[in-house]
């Protein structure tokens, strides 16, 4: 018998199930696409899927690198015993350098003070620190801006405490197949590489492609891919369908009917009474809400799977409860309800939620909260 102090989650039926077989399949797809190295991006708790199990599955499927956004996220992987190379995708704060070195994480670098501090640290310990220099080629978010290329490349070329093992950039519009931006960015990257080569910087790795870049733009593939959303089987945007590229969604969000009732025609339901029963019928209440990551914007917009049928979410999504219109099919407490993923032959796709909530798949899965326990299988 588990003591009450050990029970934190799992008493209610709401849970996330992650198919690690799908993750392995998707990583293998990216390896086939280009025949290059794959760096599997597992930032933000593996896009909500659980960073450590996803990282292990990606490595099993042949990924040679992992990437995270934060030093803290890299430390979590190291503490779980993962010893593969780990790239930190943005330059960390200078105060994070001791942790970075201790855990042997590889930083992305673009600022002079960070590079100087790392150089000194590499000198002090007697072995150079491997870095991935990042050029801004048109995303204008982070990376060395063109005006600073020369100064930063000189600094890197003369620093004895660091070694530039990779050059990287990031694409702004890779999910738009017809936008010229991606090939323009590749021309800028080639100019950066030429300038680096003149100073003797010849990196082993060159990487530029997120999932959309990897799938759609062969010129952007270079020597390593950095897919994130695609390894979870999800589409980067409305113009790139993950399913068309043979990717399989890994995540299901499931619950059960917690309460059922028959309502008369015209009965208004939930906060604000924004929906009323069109005729007499059954309502199921499901113990999952916006505090679990079901966007309130989905009220009256998307369906769940119950008993092999699609049933509309009706009335306002609440913090801990969601109401579903079952019409004439009587729901029973304990019936399985699938909010995301497959039941039988049908599937509710994250892409449906993203479209209905006017957002992208990334935001849907990263906002599934820590309150929902993750179960991994496969
Ligand atoms: C998040 C991220 C990726 C992965 O992008 P997806 O669109 O999820 O494939 C790759 N590179 C960088 C720099 C990122 O921040």
Structure, explained:
- Helix content is 28%, strand content 25%.
- By secondary structure, it is α/β, with parallel strands linked by helices.
- It folds into two domains: 20-233, Alanine racemase (TIM Barrel, Alpha-Beta Barrel); 251-348, Lyase, Ornithine Decarboxylase, Chain A, domain 1, CATH 2.40.37.10.
- Strands 1, 10, 11, 14, 15, 16, 17, 18, 19 and 20 form a ten-stranded mixed β-sheet that branches.
- Helix 1 (20-34) crosses helix 3.
- The two termini are 28 Å apart.
- The mean pLDDT is 96.
- The protein binds pyridoxal-5'-phosphate (PLP).
- Pyridoxal-5'-phosphate binds next to loops.
Work out the helix count.
11
Which residues form runs of ≥5 with pLDDT under 50?
none
Helix fraction, binned, reads 25-40%
Overall tally of domains: 2
């Amino acid at each position: 018998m588990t003591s009450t102090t050990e029970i934190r989650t799992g008493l209610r039926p709401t849970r996330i199930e992650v198919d690690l077989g799908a993750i392995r399949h998707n990583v293998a797809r990216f390896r086939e696409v280009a025949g290059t190295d794959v760096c599997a991006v597992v930032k933000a708790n593996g896009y909500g899927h659980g960073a450590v199990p996803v990282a292990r599955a990606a490595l099993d499927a042949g990924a040679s690198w992992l990437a995270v956004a934060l030093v803290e996220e890299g430390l979590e992987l190291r503490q779980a015993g993962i010893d593969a190379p780990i790239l930190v995708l943005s330059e960390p704060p200078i105060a994070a350098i001791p942790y970075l070195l201790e855990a042997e994480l590889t930083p992305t670098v673009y600022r002079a003070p960070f590079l100087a501090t790392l150089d000194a640290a590499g000198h002090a310990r007697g072995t150079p620190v491997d870095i991935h220099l990042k050029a801004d080629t048109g995303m204008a978010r982070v990376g060395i801006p063109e005006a600073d290329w020369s100064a930063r490349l000189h600094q890197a070329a003369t620093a004895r405490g660091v070694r530039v093992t990779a050059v990287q950039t990031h694409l702004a519009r890779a999910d738009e197949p017809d936008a010229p931006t991606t090939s323009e960015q590749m021309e800028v990257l080639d100019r950066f590489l030429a300038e680096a080569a003149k100073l003797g910087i010849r990196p082993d790795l060159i990487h530029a492609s997120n999932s959309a870049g990897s799938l759609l733009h062969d010129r952007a593939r270079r020597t390593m891919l950095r897919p994130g959303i695609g390894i979870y089987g999800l589409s980067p945007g409305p113009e790139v369908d993950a399913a068309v590229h043979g990717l399989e969604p890994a995540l299901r969000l499931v619950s059960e009917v917690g309460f059922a009732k028959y309502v008369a025609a015209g009965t208004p339901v939930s906060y604000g009474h924004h929906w009323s029963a069109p005729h007499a019928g059954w309502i199921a209440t499901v113990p999952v809400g916006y505090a679990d990551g079901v966007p309130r914007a989905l009220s009256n917009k998307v369906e769940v799977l119950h008993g092999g049928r699609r049933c509309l979410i009706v009335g306002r999504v609440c913090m801990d409860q969601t109401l579903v219109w079952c019409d004439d099919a009587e729901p029973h407490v304990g019936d399985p309800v699938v909010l995301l993923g497959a039941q039988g032959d049908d599937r509710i796709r994250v892409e449906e939620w993203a479209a209905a909530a006017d957002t992208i798949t990334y935001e849907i899965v990263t906002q599934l909260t820590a309150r929902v326990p993750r179960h991994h299988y496969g």
